[in-house]
């Protein structure tokens, strides 16, 4: 049996001190990476393999009327409680890729290139996930806001998914392509920009676009759900395979820290705030009752979690990251 004496301990400590005082020139500091790793996350729904693919995130200042029916100070306080940068919010963008075995389906196409360095990363992250844009069979858009639809175009203006059928909600197409509605939006700079972006994205390819209705199966096992309010034709999706079911909520909640926790708050971007409020309650009550996994386009990456009732609102319980499928 070996015992350590005080003399031996002191001798060892002295030797260690001497060795640490000698510079080790071979160990240089590692260079800073300066960027994130590719952001995609795979999960299963029955036999379907799904991938949450980040298009990036934007951080911007909370403007007046960002929440229409509470004070700006309340909105700022909610942002601080969520640990956003002071006076600001961060909004992620997370399209979903669903491989049904027979079809490769992309739900929402991201904000696209040219908007800024922190967004427009869908193509890069699809490539990192081993997905060729030419292999995508169907692109289904939940609504025609720029951050969901603009990504159907590549930086050179060509179609980003050249072999894909593009599907849009009938009611949203009618709203955003209406000259009368566009004229009414002239006094609202942000809304005017949404109309211009939607028309620009689809210019020249109108005949290639397929319109779908609520209740319709837009791809195998993927059904369009009526969740209006954010836009007139705003659509969510139920993905079903075997006994498994997933709910893709699209933009029922713009920022979960605001509008999921406070479903009666009215977001500036909601075309019909009262209808959007009713939709939030209806959808989240269903999700909570089913204990279904919910994907939120603007949820923190990987954009998946469960919704639970919490007083007059709801709380998001993020999924536990799985290393295997």
Q: How much helicity do the residues have?
A: 25-40%
- Spell out the helices and strands N to C: HEEEHEEEHEHEHHHEEEEEHHEEE
Q: What is the terminal-to-terminal distance? A: 50 Å
Count the beta strands. Answer: 16
Uncertain segments: 15-20
CATH class: Alpha Beta
- Summarize the biggest pleated sheet: 7 strands, mixed
Could you give me the name of the CATH homologous superfamily?
A: Ribonuclease Z/Hydroxyacylglutathione hydrolase-like
Shape: globular
Strand line-up across the major sheet = 1-2-5-6-7-8-9
Number of domains: 1
Number of separate helices:
9
| CATH architect. name | 4-Layer Sandwich
Structural class: alpha+beta
CATH fold name? Metallo-beta-lactamase, Chain A
Computed CA radius of gyration, to the nearest angstrom: 24 Å
What proportion of the residues form beta strands (DSSP E)? 25-35%
Provide mean pLDDT, rounded. 93
